[in-house]
Amino acid sequence: MTDLTSSATGTGRELVAFRIGQQEFAIDITLVREIRGWTAETSIPRAPDFVRGVVNLRGAVLPILDLAARLGLPPAEPSARHVIMVVQMGQQTLGLLVDEVADIQLANDGLIQPTPEVGSELVRQFVRGVLAVDGRMIVLIALDDILPSPSHGVIAA
Amino acid sequence: MMDSMEAIRVTFFQECEEQLAELEAGLVAIEGGTAEPDTVNAVFRSVHSIKGGAGAFQLADLVSFAHGFETVLDEIRSGRLEPRADIMGTMLHAADVLSDLVREARDGTALGIGWREVLADLDAIARHGSVPAEPPPPEADEFGFAPITIRIPTGEPEPMASDPDRLMVEFRPHPTLFARAHDPIPVLRELARLGEARIACDLERLPPLDLLDPEQAYLAWRIELSGVPDTAVRDCFEFLDEDCDLVIGPRSTAGVPPEPEPELALGHLPAARTATAPEPSRPAPSKVSAPSQAAPPPPGAATCGDNAPPPTIRVDLDRLDRLIDLVGELVINQAMLGQRVIEAGVARQPAVATGLDELKLLTREIQESVMAIRAQPVRPLFQRMGRIVREVAAATGKVVRLRTEGEGTEVDKTVVERLADPLTHLIRNAIDHGIETPERRLAAGKPAEGTVRLVAAHRSGRVVIEVSDDGGGIDRSRVRQIAERKGLIPADAQLSDPEVDSLLFLPGFSTTETVSDISGRGVGMDVVKRSIQALGGRLAVASRPGQGSSFGMSLPLTLAVLDGMVVSVADQTLVVPLTAIMETLRPAPGDVRALGPAARVLAIRGGFVPVVDLGEELGFSPAGRAEGAQPVAVLVETSEGACAALLIDSIQDQRQVVIKSLEANYGTIPGIAAATILGNGRVALILDVDALVASSGAPASSSVLSTPLSCSR
Amino acid sequence: MKRTVLTVDDSRAMRDMLRLCLSGAGYAVAEAVDGEDGLLALRRLRPDVIISDINMPRLDGFGFIEKVRAEKDYLGIPILVLSTECDAAKKARARAAGATGWIVKPFEPAKLVSALARVLA
Q1: I need a surface site. Which of A71, A93, B644, C4 has the fewest CB within 10 A?
Q2: Which ipTM was obtained for this model?
Q3: Across the interface, which of A46, A53, A59 has its CB nearest the CB of B619?
């Protein structure tokens, strides 16, 4: 487990960059509570394919989402090398399964380029911009719609 | 300010509930002859307290009713009125009315006027008791913001303030004035504040220092006031009137005229007080030196004494639930540690084994203590039932006494709260259907007065509550008849007595033809059973013809844990709540039969129950069970009374699990009630048996069964 | 320094109300739930004035006042009775026990405060 909050220094916007397959993505660091190694989940019946199941996070039940599947990429085949980013969104705590966490990027809003026009529905839904760093392309994503609100019961349906 | 008053209002109504419970308990004790000497006082105090608070919130109806009530209780308390049975009947009724008035005041609902009749009864009793020597003061005086007036007992006609502009006051304190901790100085200061004052101290009676008795009063004052109404002056002497000679009057009529001298301006008073020994002798005022005392603690800190009633604190429920969560985690962690130790192969080392055992004990103790914080005695709940008994008895013309036992038994707060409805229903039912009319009882050789017993006890980690009556027992032939007529059982069904009795719990069964106002209300025993089951409890009935019936329920101590059977289905671990399970069996090949294109049923004891294959239903093993693997059937009963067989792979364990919510982080999952964390640290889902059976298409009524399976275990 | 009032009443609502009224008027407020508790509170702090109910469990207001007055140390503390009752016999009894004054419940905050001012040196 890595404590990211202690490394948060400087001004501007800090992003956690991570890798899924050959692509790099990033989310706002303020959402990330901790990063854990992958452990086997308990399956949830009739769940969407990107919901891998639930695990025990210090006594709380933490749903694990396969971010690759959620973003329309080939679903992950998790191993001990995979990591779970525990993110907090409002009252909800979720675990995101990714291949690995790369680094932390300090980015002013000026450095973030608008999303190139692509047709994909999923891109429009989650991608908030693109960051070019040392020849890498890091896709900034938002998590607002990552799991439909439990109160709406969309997942349950 | 408004918020504070609102908070106090809430407190007031909470206290009213406590007072009402105490009132009821006390009256019942007096009626039953089991009253302690102090019971009458306590009962009086309860009503009195309610009256006091109600006055503060200007709840006029409540005040006047409580006053009438209190007057009669005072007669009883003073021994002037004997608590005869008829009077106690009125008292109990008045307690019910008082409780209605309190609730109506709290909820702001419209007041009926029925209480006025009861108040009239109370007044009649109070008068009949032939005592009150002095007529009660008029209501406005008693309850309004009564002006605090004081008659000055000077023995002379009160002086007329003929010249309102100039008043002469003569004030001579008695020694008793100081004994009651009065002090003339603030009074003089107050007078000076009212208007222009010339104050003179009369030292005439002051003895020489060596003859001075510090407990005597030697000084007097003459005060000349201008532009001050004499009522305001009287107010200043409000509490002093009997401890001094006081003459207030127009200058000409007041006392000894000689122009006061030596004259002191008020401003000099403090100086005069310190400089001259003749100061009004305050007996040992020791504001500065308090020899026997430690330094005073901050105000507010010292509110509870060593012998005070058990001190309590109010805790936010959220905080408590957080603590309960944490303890749940501790329990899980302890179990995980135990498992790791075994895996590491060191479990046999004595030091490790002892340490683990101690940890386990400690953890359990902590868990129980924490759960106990949420626990509350069932007493208030039981006390509320007294009223139900009286009302239903009155409505049905029966004579019934309620006997309660084990009121101190503690159950989780939520359980207590949710027991009120089912318990009310069972009590109504016991009187309406169980207890016979006095004539029939006498004819049967029983006392005319029937008894309903309400008993609570702790038994093997659960709470058992029993409602029993000494009535006629369940009329089984009639129950059968009704069940047949309603198509709940075939006409030729062979049923044992307990099976007939349990027909009462079938949905749609009601022994009364018309929905009775008493126990009917369109609600059957099935609803009672369902609400008990929703609390993780079980309900059972036993009955003996001519001797009565008994409804027993067994409830978990808390809703935070649940007894479950841990089972395996398609490599997944699931928990089935034990309350839903009737039995488990390993069906022989061929017992599970296809019925139609998709459905399957399990043949059991000549009947058939629908089958729910959990692996398929939950989508864990879409391909179906491996060929040759023999499933285990868990026979469950839903709270609707439907039975089904859940097919699983194997049973792992039976244990208590801590309930964890899935909804906070995820959402509801059909067929899943909640989650828990097992000793290996993995999450296991807890099945929602009702939802699973319903969604699998199993009929919600057991009427398809050729034989209704007895729901007793 | 703030003057301290000790309120002795078995009703929490009433104590809360007194606290609201008195702390608004600049007094520090200590509380006791009945006469016995009041005596214990007295041993630990010295209030400038006591406001006591009459009808209380364990030790009622009359008994409380008598016990307070029985101790020389407490003779100088004014005790105001706050009661729903206002009949002369009860008042006389309280007076005989050593009560300084009598206020009828429900109280008017302004009246209570001025009554306090009148008994506090």
Answers
A1: A93
A2: 0.83
A3: A46
User: Which of C11, C32, C103 has its CB closest to that of B49?
Assistant: C11
Mean pLDDT of B649-666: 82
CA distance B573 to chain C (A): 52
Distance CA B289, CA B261 (A): 36
Domain count for chain A: 1
List the domain range (segments joined by +) for residue A39.
5-146
Strands annotated E in B135-243 = 166-173, 196-202, 220-226
CA distance C56 to C59: 6
> Which of B38, B239, B293, B313 to probe the C interface (max C CBs under 10 A)?
B239
CA end-to-end distance (rounded Å), chain C: 14
Q: Which chains are within 8 Å of B by 3+ CB pairs?
A: A, C
Higher pLDDT, B486 or B300: B486
Please answer whether residues B194 and B225 qualify as being in contact, where contact means their C-beta atoms are separated by less than 8 angstroms.
yes
- Choose among A28, A36, A37: nearest CA to A8: A28
* CA distance to B585, B586, B602, B640, per residue, from B605 (Å): 12, 13, 10, 22
* Whole-angstrom distance, CA of residue B186 vs CA of residue B265: 15
pLDDT per position as a tens digit, B370-401: 877 878 888 888 988 988 898 889 888 899 99
Give the span between the Cα atoms of A59 and A65, in whole angstroms.
19
3-state secondary structure of C39: helix
Whole-angstrom distance, CA of residue A40 vs CA of residue A37? 10
Q: Is C98 left (phi over 0), alpha (psi -120 to 50) or beta?
A: left
Q: How far, in Å, CA of B660 to CA of A65, rounded?
A: 19
Total of domains in chain C: 1
pLDDT of B521-536, one tens digit each? 446 788 888 888 778 7
**CA B630 to chain CA centroid, nearest Å:** 52
Residues of chain A with pLDDT under 70: 1-12, 119, 148-157
Task: Indicate which CATH number applies to the domain containing A99.
Answer: 2.40.50.180
Contact of chains C and A by CB distance (3 or more pairs under 8 angstroms): no
Query: Among B328, B573, B669, whose Cβ lies nearest the Cβ of A44?
Result: B669
Residue of A144, A3, A153 whose CA lies nearest to A70: A144
- CB C12 to CB B300 under 8 A? no
The Cα of A54 is separated from the nearest Cα of chain B by a number of Å equal to 7
B contact set with A (CB within 8 A): 325-326, 328-329, 332-333, 572-573, 617-620, 660-672, 675, 677, 681-685
Contacts of A44 in chain B (CB under 8 A): 666, 669, 672, 685
Query: In 3D, which of C29, C11, C8 has the Cα closest to residue C20?
Result: C29
